[in-house]
Amino acid sequence: MFMNGLPDCNREGVPQKTGLICGRCAKDAQIFTSKSGTVIGSVSVAAYNKPDGTTTWMNVKGFGSMGRAIASASKGDPIIAVGRVEPHDYEGKVYIDFIAEWASVGAQRIDARTAAAPPMNSSGGFEEIQDDGELPF
């Protein structure tokens, strides 16, 4: 799922689209090294569904240490990233890159269908705090 972010501009003052993307990795991540030696990690994530029933995909990319973190992703891993959108043309087709400024890949693997709820005490999950007469701030 992709959510639009706040309006932003790059260093040259050109408007750019920002946002947040979260979902599951569609395939194992790839890792590249640029000609200048920068590590680039990339993984494909479904951004949103179009009215015609097709899906728009974004390649979540990171550079340097962010790239190495993204490159650790495997198919099905959860991912959430904050960054900017950079569309580009290749052989007549438009591809959408999402350049991550922050990302988390596969931090916790919790299946909501099988995860047990944490045990609750008799007060509905809250613990009684003893009043010592002092204000808490």
Beta strand count: 9
Rough outline: elongated
Q: What structural category arises from helix and sheet content?
A: mainly beta
Task: Look at the structure and give the mean pLDDT.
Answer: 82
Question: For this entry, what is the oligomeric state of its chains?
Answer: single chain
Residue share in helix: under 10%
In spatial order, strands of the major sheet run 1-4-8-9-7-6-5
β-sheet strand percentage: over 45%
Low-confidence stretches: 108-120
**What is the distance, rounded to the nearest whole angstrom, between the alpha carbons of the first and last residues?**
39 Å
How big is the Rg?
Answer: 21 Å
Listing every helix as H and every strand as E from the N terminus to the C terminus, the arrangement reads EEEEEEEHEE
Number of helices: 1
Q: How is the biggest beta sheet arranged? A: 7 strands, mixed
SSE layout:
Elements (H helix, E strand, L loop, with lengths): L1 E3 L3 E2 L5 E2 L1 E7 L5 E4 L5 E11 L5 E9 L1 H7 L6 E13 L2 E13 L32
Parallel strand pairs: 7-9
Antiparallel strand pairs: 1-4, 2-3, 4-8, 5-6, 6-7, 8-9
Could you describe the 3D structure shown?
- With 137 residues, the protein is mainly beta.
- 5% of the residues lie in helices and 47% in strands.
- It has one helix and nine strands.
- The chain has one helix spanning 65-71; strands at 2-4, 8-9, 15-16, 18-24, 30-33, 39-49, 55-63, 78-90, 93-105.
- It is elongated, with a radius of gyration of 21 Å.
